[in-house]
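Thanks for the sequence, V.! I ran Cytochrome C right away. Repeating your input here for the record:
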Amino acid sequence: MIRHLNAAIFRLAICFAVVSTTAYGESLRDGEGRKLVEAQCSACHSVNRLTQSLGYSREGWLELIATMVDLSTDPARREVIVEYLAEHFPPNDRRAPNIVEGDTRIAFKEWLVPTLGQRSRDPAEAPDGNIWWAGQWRNLIGRIDPKTGKMREYLLPAGAMPHSVTLDRDGGVWYTGNKNGTIGRLNPASGEITVYDMPDPAARDPHTAVFDSAGILWFTVQHANRIGRLNPRSGKIKLVTMPTAGSRPYGIKIDASGTPWVACNGSNCLVKVNPKTMALTEVKLPHEATTVRRLDIAADGMIWYVNSGRGRLGRFDPRSGEVREWPSPSGPHSHPYAIAVVDGAVWYNESGMRPDPLVRFDLKTETFQSWPIPSGGIYAGIVRHMRPTHDGDLLIHQSATNRIIRVEIGEGSTSQ
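Predicted structure:
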């Protein structure tokens, strides 16, 4: 049975936080609906999404709102909100991406997850083909059966607010409790959840996790500036502190030798972890303005990373120490975010643009191609993590509209 949160919560969840002052110091314009929009929308979060959005027609705002909150029982309220948004936030091109044409064909297959306002994210494919995701804002993880389209959601212990899901080889589903300093394992068959508390309460925000070939779980703790290791057999957790204060470890991957590599979201570095001793070796990247959300490792051992701070795609050769970077198609403010190496290419997204494009960088020709990522009939963003499927496709998401998306690579024409 799919679990839904109380519908009363939904009324507080139009996630385009509107407060009296926008991100640029402007007040919302007067007009019928202003106070209602402020009251309804600012309950979600303090980020001013409206001025940063792509803008929408009346029909577009209706579609977007419907992915976040159920106002069907109060059509008068809904109409006032939508009319105000359509009048004052129409379509715009202030953050339009540079879409690059190319020969690769893809198709987007979308699923809209059940519970509204959850900010679904970080999908991963299990060995049985099911797709799991984290619904961070509604404290749940969910499962899609792609063959039937059936979904199920599992509520987590209070306050977990999962940032990501990671799958073990025995069928267990692990989540990082980003708000209560825990890591948890769900047994899908029984629904039982085992919780592992951080040994240090300062390690309050477990972030991204990955298993090595021995079944050890490695994870980052971003704001606590730690890297962790959890042995599922013993339940023991060990934490180490990053070499540079404020590095904010974010993405983490394991290379072919079993060595973890970590991205620094707060500093210009990558960090190599000794898997036996947990000794850390910091690799300084050339430009001080560099920050790295995530990385991935190609079959030849090259480490590819997104230079989020400078709008570039980067490559580090761990053998020679050489660093190369390429400007992302949409420029220095494109803020590349998620990344995966698949299909002879590096795939990532430009999260600073509206719409949020999916970008492909061909490893042989060193050329780019990109596509706007759909969210139903609109484009809303953003992708925060992406992972390959077992057959070489790509799993992404659009957290603003609660969508999980499979990118079918080489599947005819670009479509939804």
